[in-house]
């Protein structure tokens, strides 16, 4: 009788390996999807610019139309404006929020827990790592939004910033170092909520799928779990995302704070303004999650070894 093949297991991944694979995967996803993010930011900021205006035709219409307009007027590479601070952000924020999720979740469930982690513990871990990570990486988010917000300028009019590093230094010199953390409140809220929605839902959907007949820990399961995570994250996080983009898109004192921005947006633009750019946001976050989780699942294997179960 032929020997049965023994199932394979993998050695635990180190914290350093988790951080590196998380930062790398988040960066790959950022490069692939930032044109969609640029379109999302332009659509959200357009609502603020047109507030109170009558009979003004919006410049940007829909995700595809916005991308086409930017490419036609400013050049295709303008769709990747903000990629440098975007990568800064993903190395810091992505590495920390994703890399710390499993250790923090294990801390919350305790060493004596048996079985699957409860959903509320997963959500708590996502909220914690999202808030901690963005508190560190918030300046990169601000610079990214500022660079993305600038459209085509009239001839002879210089851009506010020549690049990412110039933006960091200019904001610090002209507005003060603390202004690099402008919009920290909504940014922490937004990223904690979206991080919890993404990581906890990916974890939960993957766990559920693996219990169904015909599913295994493969690319199809990772893809479906990533799409589910992206959809839930957008539904939950869109209102906070709009407030964050509007506060960060201007260096003026247009808003007194998070609550004032929320109230002004609701009063001037209506409730649906909080879901302005929903489709590009879902396309962006859904595709971002798919690319990130597919890359992450494969990259983590480079830091582990197969052993006999």
UniProtKB/TrEMBL annotation:
UniProt entry tagged with the keyword Protein transport: no
Subcellular location: Membrane
Ranges of the Solcar repeats in the UniProt entry: 13-107, 117-208, 217-302
Keywords of the record: Membrane, Repeat, Transmembrane, Transmembrane helix, Transport
Top-rank lineage group of the source organism: Eukaryota
Gene3D superfamilies associated with the record: Mitochondrial carrier domain
Bilayer topology: Multi-pass membrane protein
Coiled coil: none
Pfam families: Mito_carr (PF00153)
UniProt family annotation: Belongs to the mitochondrial carrier (TC 2.A.29) family.
Name of the protein in its database record: Mitochondrial uncoupling protein 1
Biological source species: Sphagnum jensenii
Lineage: Eukaryota, Viridiplantae, Streptophyta, Embryophyta, Bryophyta
């Amino acid at each position: 009788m032929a020997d049965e093949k023994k199932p394979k297991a993998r050695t635990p991944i180190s914290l350093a390996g988790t951080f590196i694979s998380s930062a790398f995967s988040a960066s790959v996803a950022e490069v692939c999807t930032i044109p969609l993010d640029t379109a999302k930011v332009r659509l959200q900021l357009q609502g603020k610019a047109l507030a109170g205006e009558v009979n003004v035709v919006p410049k940007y219409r829909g995700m595809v139309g916005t991308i086409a307009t930017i490419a036609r007027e400013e050049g295709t590479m303008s769709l990747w404006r903000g990629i440098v601070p975007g990568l800064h952000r993903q190395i810091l924020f992505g590495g920390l929020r994703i890399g710390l999720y499993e250790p923090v979740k294990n801390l919350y469930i305790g060493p004596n827990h048996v079985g699957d982690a409860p959903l509320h513990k997963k959500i708590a871990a996502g909220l914690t790592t999202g808030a901690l990570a963005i508190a560190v990486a918030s300046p990169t988010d601000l610079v990214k939004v500022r660079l993305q917000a600038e459209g085509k300028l009239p001839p002879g009019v210089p851009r506010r910033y020549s690049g990412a590093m110039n933006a960091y230094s200019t904001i610090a010199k002209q507005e003060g170092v603390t202004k690099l953390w402008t919009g920290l409140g909504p940014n922490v809220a937004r990223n904690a909520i979206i991080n919890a929605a993404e990581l906890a839902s990916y974890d939960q959907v993957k766990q559920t799928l693996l219990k169904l007949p015909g599913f295994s820990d493969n690319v199809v399961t990772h893809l479906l779990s990533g799409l589910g995570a992206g959809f839930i994250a957008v539904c939950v996080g869109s209102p906070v995302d709009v407030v964050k983009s509007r506060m960060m898109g201007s260096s003026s004192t247009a808003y007194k704070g998070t609550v004032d921005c929320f109230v002004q947006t609701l009063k001037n633009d209506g409730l649906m303004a909080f879901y302005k750019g929903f489709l590009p946001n879902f396309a962006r976050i859904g595709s971002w999650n798919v690319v990130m989780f597919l890359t992450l699942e494969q990259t983590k294997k480079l830091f582990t070894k197969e052993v006999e179960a």
